[in-house]
Amino acid sequence: MVSKIRPPRRGLNGADVDFHTTWGILETAFREIHTKNASALSFEELYRNAYKIVLKKKGEELYNRVAHFEEQWLGTNVRSGIVKTLSAPLMLTDGAGRTLATTNERREAGEKFLKSLKQAWEDHQVCMGMLTDVLMYMPSIFAKSMGLFRDQILRTPVRQGAPTLLEILTRIILDQIQMDRDGESIDQFLIKSNVYMLEGLYQSSQEVEDAKLYLKPFEREFLRQSAEFYRDEGERLLKESDAGTYCRHAKRRIDEENDRCRSTLSESTTPKIQAVVEDELIRNKMKGLIEMESGVAFMVDNDKLHELSLVFDLEARVDPRKPELTKAMQKIIAEMGTNINNAAIAVSEAAPQAEAATAEEQPEEGKSKGAPAKAINQQTVAALKWVEEILTLKDRFDNICKHSFVSDQTVSTAINRSMADVINAFSRGSEYISLFIDDNMKRGIKDKSEAEVDATLEKSILVLRYLSDKDIFETYYKKHLCKRLLLKKSQSVEVEKQMISRMKIELGNSFTLKLEAMFKDMTLSEELSNGYRNHVAGMNEGANEKRAELSIKVLTSMTWPLEAFRSSSDGGEQEGGGGRTQIIYPASILRVKEGFERFYSQKYSGRKLTWQNNMGDADLKARFPNSRHAVHDVNCSTYAMLILLLFNELPTNATASLEEIEARTNIPLDDLKRNLQSLAVAPKTRFLIKEPMSRDINAGDRFKWNSEYNSKFLRIKVGVVSAGNKVEGDRERKETEKKNNDSRGFAIEAAVVRIMKQRKELAHAQLLTETITQLTHQFRPDVNMIKKRVESLIEREYLERIEEAPVPSYRYLA
User: Fold this and answer.
1) b/e string for 475-510 if b means 16 or more Cβ within 10 A?
2) Is residue 604 very low, low, confident or very high in pLDDT (cuts 50, 70, 90)?
3) In 10 A of CB 317, how many CB atoms?
4) DSSP 3-state assignment of 126?
5) What gap in Å lies between CA 606 and CA 618, rounded to an integer?
6) 586 preceded by cis ω (within 30°)?
7) First to last CA, the chain
8) Phi, psi of 657, rounded to the nearest 5 degrees
9) Residue ranges of region Disordered (predicted)?
């Protein structure tokens, strides 16, 4: 055991000390310490001898002697022992520097060298600890001894022209690490001990923290070789494995390197090697990984949600924006969405061709109406299918985003943007979405629970949210809502109102203003009808006479899209509409009509009623002698009612031609043909007999009352061909687009005037930007259209150009 060193007695001085004699004593003691024979030494005596030399002003010479002694000892005794462990497996290499030994040979030889160097380092530290105790008044000797170990052991070449022990140590540790990466067993503690040595030595005597031997020569080479290894491994895996395996392998490699730094190297290396692995296996390979045959597209197609999450986790490690993954997801959505759009376009283009082909191929008396009607129905079905497939696509990617991408905001935003692009790339999107809502309001919500109805409404709003041209959607929605309300097709008025409320939240008050006005008209009309019935009931005249009842819908002309009911050929018929042919009513109906007009004019003076006969319906009592029921309740259109009542005035078995019916009713020809088709061709409502019998209604055809009609149903509804909501034809769509463009022009002008009224003067570019910003929530404004409307406002002296302005600018004229 080392004895405790007492402080020197007072009055001690070095006047009687002989330096050479004293140094001889110290040198002999140091040699005993290095040979591990220090048990017999008196450290107190050694300390006093060293202190006397310092007092004699010989401290610097003592320092130099100690340094020289250590240099000789390390260079002669220690170094030679380490060099002897450098066996052939460590030194034999080919021309390219590759070792010629097997893995086991290299591992055993490497461990032998590492153990020798570890022992030498530990012995040196112990010895220098003892020397420091003796040379307590020379604290710098310890730092000097560490530098000597670095220079004499690590930096000196094994022999002339050969590498240094530090280079050999670096190569051996890196070789051992490579074995570990390849799955071989290595002595991690042994390597860690040598790493401690490198962390305790510095490049120079300055001992700067960033200049440790571990950081400069070793770690730099470790990171370089690791980058090269993982670069090659990544390229090999991209060729040989599938994407899921690659992701799992990359994640495992990162975890392995983190563990290796903790157990074998230094934890300070963890972020650096992690960055290397991430760069070589993820950042530089992500594009190739995603585009693999088994990459992201394959994972999406086959619902590989876990593997998608692996791809997400990998890229999220290197870039929070996930650019490659989001780009890939957007591309997949675009491709799938394009396929959905193309399928819908193919159906819409096939329908007119099928109609044209049928017209050419069918004989005059054949079934020429069947195929076109079927084609129109196919288009409507395709429209509903398009929306369903878009919603399915959205649900699919929402599910992926939730379970694979942890609802990441960046990816979710990219998915939503791509969905919007898909929907807005389809020219009929607005119409099809409106038809989808229309179908659900008429049939889809039937027998559904409140939660299911709510889910249906939310789906509709979801797809509407992506639509950029919301003004076009509004046009179609108003048309479809108009028919649902007036033809009593809606399953629930309350659900209709819920839908309007959701639209108001999503799109604003201005969007739903006219839609809400339509419901207000319906409520007021019901009150008017009840008021008129009470008015008629209170009249004395004709109290005992049977009188036709009237249920009226008074519609505000600027609110309701009444063109939805008009004939495609002549725009339909309206009475009192400025010179159009007036319908000829039977006396009983005319009396009711005129009576309501008088009642309404008394209630609202100054208002003018325009009768939309093509939009009404009627309930009749019909008697057929041979039918199962003596009297049938028949519901039909107003035009069908006029046709049937006409046959009341004809003698039994009398016939009337198409031209005669037209002359006696003044029903527009196209509407007349459609209603006659329902009354004389449709099997279930064949109240009239047509001669000759065919599906077409042609000039010269004659009709008579079908007294043999028989039906098991008491109530019979007469449908009208093409009376429901359907996909618009090319001509109808062009008309809709034209009206919509006109409306957009007015909206642009209004926005420009609002902006200029507030700003007074504004540059052209800024005016364009602000106008587009104001109108984006309604539609995507076209720059050329904005320029044209600005020119129009200049011509009408709302604006003027500022000639002296450095850039094109405008001034508002009050």
Assistant:
1) bbbbbbbbbbbbbebbbeeebbeebbebbbeebeee
2) confident
3) 17
4) helix
5) 29
6) no
7) 107
8) -80, 165
9) 352-372
pLDDT tens digits for range 552-598: 888 888 888 877 666 544 444 455 544 456 889 888 888 888 888 88
Nearest CA among 620, 518, 589 for reference residue 560: 518
Cβ-based burial of 560 (10 A; exposed 0-12, middle 13-18, buried ≥19): buried
How far is the C-alpha of 112 from the C-alpha of 428, rounded, in Å?
A: 79
> 705: helix, coil or strand?
strand
Q: Under a CB-based contact definition with an 8 Å cutoff, are residues 609 and 694 in contact?
A: no
- Which residues are paired to 494 by β-bridges? none
Whole-prediction pTM: 0.76
Beta-strand runs (E) in 586-719: 617-623, 631-637, 655-657, 688-691, 702-705, 715-717
Count of Cβ atoms closer than 10 Å to residue 553 Cβ: 17
Residue 186 — pLDDT band, cuts 50, 70, 90?
very high
The stretch 280-292 carries a mean pLDDT of: 94
Tokens at residue 296, please? 């992201």
CB-based contacts of 117, cutoff 8 Å, min separation 6: 82, 153, 165, 169, 194, 197
Whole-number Å distance between alpha carbons of 690 and 679: 9
Confidence at 364, pLDDT banded by 50, 70, 90: very low
- The two tokens of residue 596 are 């309501």
- Please state the φ and ψ torsions of residue 810, each to the nearest 5 degrees: -130, 155
Per-residue confidence at 297, pLDDT binned at 50, 70, 90? very high
